Every structure is written in C-alpha cells, then in structure tokens.
Amino acid sequence: MKTLLRIATLSFGLVLLVGCASTKTAYREAPPQQRSAGFSMEVDERYVTLVENIAKQRGTRVMWVNKPTKRVNTVAAAD
C-alpha cells in the first residue's frame, strides 16, 4: 500500500511539473501585428453612432472600452 501511494504521489508530482513546463509559451509576447500596406484602422463611427442611438432609445448608455474599428484603404487612386 505504501508503495502504491508513493508511486501515485511521484506520478502526480511529475504531471504537475510537466504541466508547468508546458505553459511557458503562454507567457511569451505575441508577435507584432503585421500591417498591410495601404490600409489603416479607424474607429467605425457609423456603427458607434448606430449602437449609441439604439441605447439612447432604450434608456441605457454605452461605455466603450475599445471602440469598434474598420480597415480603411489609405492608398490614393492613381488618376
């Protein structure tokens, strides 16, 4: 019985160590976002206005933590 308990304890300890070692990638910084040439991110004012108007009609208020954004083409058309 003592042998079984000792083996179980050692196995559990090893599993914990392996689990902790495998989470190392969770703490790495994410690679910088690749920016597409000719595009920029802007606040989607149309959507923000729509949501805020609906909220106002319902008697509530929207507090944006991160306003919604949209991708905008910044490359000027060649004339």
Q: Can you lay out the helices and strands and say which pair or pack?
A:
Elements: H1 2-22, E1 39-43, H2 45-57, E2 69-73
Antiparallel strand pairs: 1-2
Beta-strand percentage range: 5-15%
Ranges with pLDDT <50 over ≥5 residues?
none
**Outline:** elongated
Protein structure class: alpha+beta
Give the tally of β-strands.
2
Mean pLDDT: 80
Major β-sheet profile: 2 strands, antiparallel
Strand order of the largest sheet: 1-2
What does this structure look like?
43% of the residues lie in helices and 13% in strands. It is built from two helices and two strands; from the N terminus they run αβαβ. By secondary structure, the protein is of the alpha+beta class. A two-stranded antiparallel sheet has the order 1-2. It has helices spanning 2-22, 45-57; strands at residues 39-43, 69-73.
